[in-house]
Automatic annotation (TrEMBL):
It holds the Pfam family CO_deh_flav_C. This is Molybdopterin dehydrogenase. Keywords: FAD, Flavoprotein, Oxidoreductase. SUPFAM superfamilies: CO dehydrogenase flavoprotein C-terminal domain-like, FAD-binding/transporter-associated domain-like. Residues 1-178 form the FAD-binding PCMH-type domain.
């Protein structure tokens, strides 16, 4: 199929982007890797595509702040492949673990980080990473700029806290700190396909090696990323938890949060089993990395 007719504009200023979006019948175009298929299948029929690639500053990838407030800021036009190969990505260890799973290399060369977040596919990797890390998203709209926490941004399948006249201009990922460890895994029919189930984890240990906090975000299992504090779960597995020690608890967690309907690729029960296994495995990996010297290497 071909898209329905639309107008195309390429403003050079953010104010002009917002003016074009006024009225709610426009759609932002950055990388187009999510939007173009939607248009081709006529699942969306915007009157105007507003290309933001010429807007100054939206292609910036920077490290801002210091200490506990340090963040990696990713502008709306930054490609996934650019972030994947930037030296800055090592400062947020969960990102290099997750980015190779985002589509295929060719798609990441064009697709943007913020585009994936704004599209809010329940099976997408980057929304889950944002939720697990507590990232902050910056949205510009008719009323000015505002920030939204990742967990509040994703409201449902392809539904976010950004309105039809808003544009997501950037996202800030907290820089990793000593004593933190992360894990990421997903199961898909083929590499690059949408995940049947996936998990992102973050574990923090104190100076005595004890678990201080643990977070887990599942994706592909509901209509949005689902995040849980699993500190008590990990502490209950002992000082040096093994995957088998967590299986029972993660299976119970899966029964609670995996509510996506079954389809030709897998039933709800199958996805629950996948999630339970992945959650246990990646919590152990995150704990091991957190308890190590503090240098994480994607694997």
């Amino acid at each position: 199929m071909k898209p329905a007719p639309f107008a195309y504009v390429r403003p050079a200023r953010l104010d002009d982007v917002l003016a074009e979006l006024a009225g709610g019948d426009g759609k932002v175009l950055a990388g187009g890797q999510s939007l173009v298929p939607v248009l081709a299948m006529r699942l969306g029929r915007p009157a105007t595509l507003v290309d933001i690639n010429s807007v100054e500053g939206l292609d910036e990838l920077t490290r801002d702040g210091s200490g506990d407030n340090a963040v990696i800021r990713v502008g709306a036009a930054v490609r996934q492949r650019t972030l994947e190969h930037s030296p800055l990505v090592a400062a947020v260890p969960l990102l290099p673990l997750a980015l190779p799973f985002v589509g295929h290399r060719e798609l990441r060369s064009r697709g943007t980080v913020c585009g994936s977040l704004a599209h809010a596919d329940p099976a997408a990797e980057l929304p889950a990473v944002a939720c697990c890390l507590g990232a902050t998203l910056e949205v510009a709209g008719p009323g000015g700029r505002r920030t939204i926490g990742a967990e509040e941004f994703f409201l449902g399948a392809m539904t976010t806290g950004a309105g039809p006249e808003d544009v997501l201009v950037g996202v800030e990922f907290p820089v990793g700190r000593p004593g933190e460890g992360h894990g990421f895994a997903e199961i898909a029919r083929r590499h690059g396909d949408f995940a049947l189930a996936g998990v992102a984890t973050k574990v923090t240990v104190g100076g005595d090696g004890a678990v201080a906090s643990a977070r887990l975000t599942g994706f592909g299992i509901s209509d949005r990323p689902v995040t849980r504090d699993v500190t008590a779960l990990l502490r209950g597995a002992g000082e040096r938890p093994a995957e088998q020690d967590l299986r029972s608890a993660t299976a119970e967690l899966a029964a609670e949060i995996v509510d996506t309907g079954g389809d030709s690729h897998g039933s709800t029960g199958y996805r629950r089993r996948l999630f339970g296994v992945l959650a246990a495995r990646e919590l152990v990996k995150a704990h091991t990395r957190a308890a190590s010297t503090g240098t994480e290497h994607p694997s």
